[in-house]
Amino acid sequence: MMQALTALEASATAGADPLRRSDPSILLIADADGGADGRAAAIATGARWLGEVAWADARARLEQQGLVSVVLAETQGVSDDLLEQMLPALLAFAESG
């Protein structure tokens, strides 16, 4: 968490506005705790961090999610069965934007 705040402070000091609507946005789908690192990376690139969602909740989130510039999908440790179910949903989401 400290890294994320440091990155946010650094971007604010540099004159960037990480919450500006025209900035790219990033959503992370992951089962492991990768949120803090993902958020810090998003802020460091000037992107808006839209949050982290577990794979089990990803379909519902994508159905409600507005436009997203980047969806990061961490698949380590995710079962093949779940990926087989979710990859078409990710493709449909990407094609809808």
What does the secondary structure layout of this molecule look like, with pairings?
Layout: H1 2-13, E1 25-29, H2 35-44, E2 48-53, H3 55-64, E3 70-73, H4 80-96
Parallel strand pairs: 1-2, 1-3
Helix pairs in contact: 1-2, 3-4
Report on this structure.
This protein is of the alpha/beta class. Helix content is 51%, strand content 15%. The protein is built from four helices and three strands; from the N terminus they run αβαβαβα. The protein has helices at 2-13, 35-44, 55-64, 80-96; strands at 25-29, 48-53, 70-73. A three-stranded parallel beta sheet has the order 2-1-3. The longest helix has 17 residues, at 80-96. Mean pLDDT is 77; it is low at 1-13.
Identify the notable features of this structure and list them briefly.
97 residues, alpha/beta, 51% helix, 15% strand, disordered N terminus
Can you give me a brief rundown of this structure?
The chain is of the alpha/beta class. 51% of the residues lie in helices and 15% in strands. The longest helix has 17 residues, at 80-96.
The number of helical segments is: 4
Mean residue pLDDT: 77
Largest sheet: 3 strands, parallel
Please bin the fraction of helical residues.
40-55%
Roughly how many Å is the radius of gyration?
A: 14 Å
Which sequence of strands runs across the widest sheet? 2-1-3
First-last Cα distance: 31 Å
Order of helices and strands: HEHEHEH
